[in-house]
């Protein structure tokens, strides 16, 4: 679950509800509600699966 970091928004989103991509400043998703940029990190698990975690500000 991801949370929009925009103070006035704060919407919560599941990974399947957002589009994670790189806009030249690293991996991020834009909040579907307000459009704010929210950074994420790609983590490879021991079994080889790629998962995304929200980056801390």
SSE layout and pairing:
Layout: E1 2-3, E2 12-13, E3 20-22, E4 27-30, E5 37-44, E6 50-54
Antiparallel strand pairs: 1-2, 3-4, 4-5, 5-6
List the total number of helices: 0
The total number of structural domains is 1
**Major sheet strand order:** 3-4-5-6
**Percent in helix:** under 10%
Report the order of strands and helices: EEEEEE
For the record, give the distance between the C-alpha atoms at the N and C termini, rounded to a whole number: 16 Å
Strand share of the residues? 35-45%
Biggest β-sheet, characterized?
Answer: 4 strands, antiparallel
Give the mean pLDDT: 95
* Structural class determined from secondary elements: mainly beta
Low-confidence runs of at least 5 consecutive residues: none
Global outline: globular
The radius of gyration is 11 Å
Number of separate strands: 6
